[in-house]
Structure formats: structure tokens, C-alpha cells
Amino acid sequence: MTRTSLLQHLYQEEIYNIAPKLLIVIDKQWSEVSIDETILLEKIVKALKLTLASVQILTRSEFLPLDFQAFAPDYIIAFGSKLKNSGRLYEAIQTDGATVVVADALDRLDEVKKRNLWITLRQVFQN
Question: CATH code at 85?
């Protein structure tokens, strides 16, 4: 084998397939999140082919995407936390370099709200 052919197979593209940065905003302290809410959040994140360890979770009652500029998220999913100047829920909102989806608090997600959330998340993360 020539040196060139060896180098062509040195780096596999899958190594560089870095997942987008996801920031999750919840409306209460992590210590107050119940086991059922944690399990639900794990299921939501797993459906996006991520793990809780691979996302950032912050607590805010309301926020602007600019508040998280230092984290440089590609996506923000808020549970119970309100996006300032917006009352829209279960819609993908493009703002300040991030896609934001605001949903009800984890303990208020019934089957209909979960379905609405999943429809929106599928549209956002289909790429």
C-alpha cells in the first residue's frame, strides 16, 4: 500500500459526526424533579438519539435564548419555563441562532401534550 492509500482510511467520518448541542430548560431545581419526571425526560432525550449526560440542563422560570449564548446551543427545549415575549407552545421558534421549543412542565405533560411535543421535535430533529 502506498502512503496515500493508508492515509485515506486513517480518519473515519463517523468520528466527526458531532451531535448538535441541546440545552434543556426546566422550571424547577433538579433536586425537585421527581423520578417519574426524570424517566420521562430520559425517554424524550433518548428519542432524539441523545442521553441526559450529553445535554445541558438549566433551571429558569423564564428565559431568552441570548441568556444561554455562552453555551452556544443549537436547540433549546423548555419544560415549564417561559420564553420571554412569546406565549407559543409546541412550535419550533427560530431565534438568536437557536431553535426553541417550549412545552408544559414535565409533570403536566398528558398524552395529547406529549404527542404535540413529539410532532414538533420530529420536525425539528428530522435532519
Answer: 3.40.470.10
Instruction: Please tell me whether residue 24 adopts helix, strand or coil conformation.
Output: strand
This prediction's pTM:
0.82
pLDDT in tens, the chain (127 residues): 544 455 555 555 555 555 568 999 999 999 999 999 999 999 999 999 899 999 999 999 999 988 998 888 999 999 999 999 888 999 999 988 899 999 999 999 999 999 999 999 999 988 5
Q: Is residue 7 part of a domain?
A: no
Start-to-end Cα distance in the chain? 37
